[in-house]
Amino acid sequence: MKYQPLRKSFLVILSACLLTIAHCQLIYWQQEVNYNIDVSLRDKDNTLAAFEKIEYTNNSPDSLKFIWFHLWPNAYKNENTAFAKQIFREKDGKKKWKDLKDKGWIDSLDFEVDGVKAKTEPDPENIDIVKLLLPSILAPGGKTFR
Q1: What does 26-83 look like in DSSP terms, one character per residue?
Q2: Where are the domains of the chain?
């Protein structure tokens, strides 16, 4: 009978650990994004024209008012992008950046969400990131189309 308090303490600690593990598994989620991209090459001026349809599923427990997009083509526009800043943190980053040929960028964006024109806000620190303001709140489990 001497070990009764220790056994109870062990059971309490074990129960708390199991509840914590179960809780962590319940709150894990990942957004789902599906893309369909239609691109045309314009040989005369070495440009691309593209249309991208995106299906975005909100698997988070939160309602969303906006979605962040990383505009990968803009990552190469100049040395002020999030991508460039990341490269420059590397030991040979300046050389890597200089060796990149034919850097490009996006010169126009037009967002529409579920048939409604949507506004964007640029990230004040990175020209390769944009905030898409949703015309209506996207509830948990909801889908939206672009």
Answers
A1: HH----EEEEEEEEEEEGGGTEEEEEEEEEEE--SSS-EEEEEEE-GGGGGSSTTSHH
A2: 4-145
